[in-house]
Amino acid sequence: ACAPLWSQQCGTSVFSSGRCVQLDRELRLVATMAPTAQRCSTFMDIVVVLDGSNSIYPWEEVQAFLGNVLARFFIGPGQTQVGVLQYGEHLVQEWALGQHPTAQSLLEAARNLTRQEGRETRTAMAIREAWWD
């Protein structure tokens, strides 16, 4: 018995919410098996839209949060690519998808990210830009 019958594999990351089990005639558990994984047909692209205005502080916590989130993904060619757009009064592309091809490079860039600052927070502009580009 399997539910669901498949999982999704992106690079070396496997996303599965189901489990397969083998039961005997009395419906007792005999073995547990992983569902068959289907390969992603493409990279997983993540674009982080990051508020760098003066309303966000302390900045070190933002950097730590970003690093913690990004450390959970397998970064590299054929796997996950990450881009970051930072906004405040203006929008700045901190790095493009694939610019940091290793997890080490990506996490170092997140640690060294400086806050743009600014008195305005233009969230809609940043989301629109991330969505269109």
UniProtKB/TrEMBL annotation:
Residues 45-130 form the VWFA domain. Signal peptide: none annotated. InterPro entries: ECM_Assembly_Org, VWF_A, vWFA_dom_sf. It holds the Pfam family VWA. PROSITE patterns: VWFA (PS50234). This is ITA10 protein. It comes from Rhodinocichla rosea. The lineage of its organism: Eukaryota, Metazoa, Chordata, Craniata, Vertebrata.
